[in-house]
Design goal:
Blueprint lengths: L1 E4 L4 H16 L4 E6 H8 L4 E5 L3 H4 L3 H7 L5 H11 L4 H11 L4 E4 L5 H9 L3 E5 L22 H31 L20 E3 L16 E3 L15 H8 L5 E4 L3 H4 L5 H12 L3 E4 L11 E4 L4 H4 L5 E4 L3 H10 L3 E3 L6 H10 L14 H11 L2 H14 L4 H11 L3
Parallel strand pairs: 1-2, 1-4, 2-3, 4-5, 5-6, 6-7, 8-9, 8-11, 9-10, 11-12
Amino acid sequence: MITILCSGSRGDFQPYIALAQELKKLGKDVRITASKSFESFIRSYGIDVYPIEADIETMKVDPKLLKAAGSSDNPLKMLLTFNKMKEYGIYMVNDYYSACEGSELIIYHPGCTIGYFAAQKFGIPSVLASPFPMHKTKEYLSVVMYGKTNSNALTKKVSYAMIQGMLWMASKDSVKGFWKKNFGKTPDNFGCPFERHTDKKHPAIVSCSNFVFKRPDDWNEYIHQSGYWFVEEPVEYTPNDELADFLDSGDKPVYIGFGSMTSLEKHEGLAEMIVEAIVKTGKRGIISGMGKLSNLPKNIIAIDSIPHSWLFERVSAVCHHGGAGTTAAGFKAGVPSIIVPFSNDQFAWAHRAYDLGVGAKPIPKRKLSSAKLADAIEFALTDKIVANARTLGKNIATEQGAAECAKIIVKCLS
């Protein structure tokens, strides 16, 4: 049995579901750790789940802390939020360790480093599986500082110390406390494990397209990046009649939705601002995840969340918050991006889309206005951006990130 340690939101789980799907194709038994909030979601893909009892509700996480996590718009705020969140890790580490028992290999998200030390204790392979590039390189800034500061030797070094430090901070104390309580001492070679994946039995794999951030030449040979990890939907999505009719009744619309950012807190006036921007452009629009909106013009429709893999191929451009998974889905669809980053690494993906020439200049949420959004939509739909986005989508389609990384994982067992 291969066990994947993961936590977070729905979008955080999807790349790991993709890995699990590919491992099953290779004949491996695999399961993902998840709280009851996501158990049915993961099982809907035919993937087994190891249940984690603790979740946001049972731990009674302070809503203000969740809000802060969703609005950390600079590295210092991110660091402070990670420091506050670490106290909740102790409630989950017991279940994570139990999930590792009896496994033949552990795959772990960088926020779940108990996987590295448990595998070390059990004498089995461990694979660091990161949803974004996080290993040190001299070639570009890490995703916590990309687009926010000038790129030079010092800032690059600091940026990787920061991203690895924050992720290590998230689980360090819980691992240390668990080990001392159960084994009377800290784990052997206790310390940040992210740069220790330097042999065949302990590789690192990264979900990122080489056409978005090329794999750095200064990474060691055991750090693998072959493309994004996209899930395969178990069934073809079928839209309701209202959405199907809307899509068939005119030019391709612009999609606008901010995912989990609008569920973390209310953003007064945001929906009205979006409607006004679409009206200014004269385009058709689809607004997602803003609830039921009344008195919409005929050229705009409001929907609940639906699979991006289905919808994004049917729109002219995608406007979103810049989550890594949503950004990847937009790039794969080959349509222009308008990214309104709210927090954390979203700024990096927003700036990268602009730097690649496949999207508009980022508009931070705090600076968003209907006029700026309308201008960004118009810019994104210019011929050059549309052509660049289409080319990027075709290039990404040549990669098989999840399948290639699954092969690397299975080789660890040979």
